[in-house]
Amino acid sequence: MTFPISLEFFPPKTPEGALKLRAVRAKLYALKPEFCSVTFGAGGSTQEGTLDTVREIVGEGQHGVPHLSGIGQTRESIRERLGLYRAAGVRRIVALRGDLPSGYGGGGEFRYASDLVAFIRAESGEHFKLAVAAYPEVHPQAKSPQADLDAFVTKVQAGANVGITQYFFNADAYFRFVDELSARGVAVPIVPGIMPITNSTQLLRFSDACGAEIPRWIRLRLMGFGDDSASIKAFGLDVITALCDKLIAGGAPSLHLYTMNQSVAVSDIVDRLRGHAPS
Question: Which pTM was predicted?
Fold first, then answer.
């Protein structure tokens, strides 16, 4: 089975991390991703690392896609950042509201992601293809599911081209979300975000922090494996490939894989989905 994928990385914090990430990317490029996105820290705390990593990805012949957060930013700082990305050959951006860094008092000039999307469109026209975040299981800070849908529709009306979801493990939540948007007249592609399961402690911590629901049966199985990392990874590969199979069969336009700057789990998932033996 052939289907498009994209990959997500985070900026390395050390020279050793940068070396490791280059090796990881080199392995994952064999999967022929549509693009590789690079995250952006709270309040822009990793923005230089984001730019440096995106430049490297572009230099390696791939489409580098920076995440850009509006929180803590001014119109001038975003305008400057857009100029740097244009000069680097970037044609896509993931535009996000972003999270406030710890102890940060102000929100900057962009209260919502839709404000950032509208500003990028006003500044750059159609130069950048804009992706925005989507939440099939509802954003943890949304007042209601309806309010969360309204927020996504507003981002599309502001100029977003595509949605990339928070990771999830319940395909029905994704399909319902897409159907509800379709009923609202939203026709942009909604790309499922896929998180490999390789470490139960890490996954539980991430999920509790971001509001991603781990079904009880998955949570209990992971807890039952204890420190048996081989069993966790084998179980995770089965669960995630089954999820991806269901999403692709149901019409998902592509898959966006959260690599966590690792190559093996992502390669194994895609290889199995494409009918190749895992590494």
Answer: 0.94
185, pLDDT greater than 90: yes
Q: Is 126 a catalytic residue?
A: no
Of these residues, 8, 16, 48, 60, which one is catalytic? Answer: 8
- Number of Cβ within 10 Å of residue 243's Cβ equals 22
User: Any idea what the Cα angle at residue 269 is, between residues 271 and 37, rounded to 5°?
Assistant: 105
Helix (H), strand (E) at residue 73:
none
Query: For residue 216, what are the contacts with CB-CB under 8 A and spacing of at least 6?
Result: none
Pick from 161, 154, 42: nearest CA to 93: 161
User: Whole-angstrom Cα distance, residue 32 to residue 114?
Assistant: 31
Whole-angstrom distance, CA of residue 28 vs CA of residue 47: 23
15-18: which pairs have CB atoms within 8 A and are 24 or more residues apart? 17/261
**Contacts of 107 by beta carbon, 8 Å cutoff, 6+ apart:** 71, 72, 100
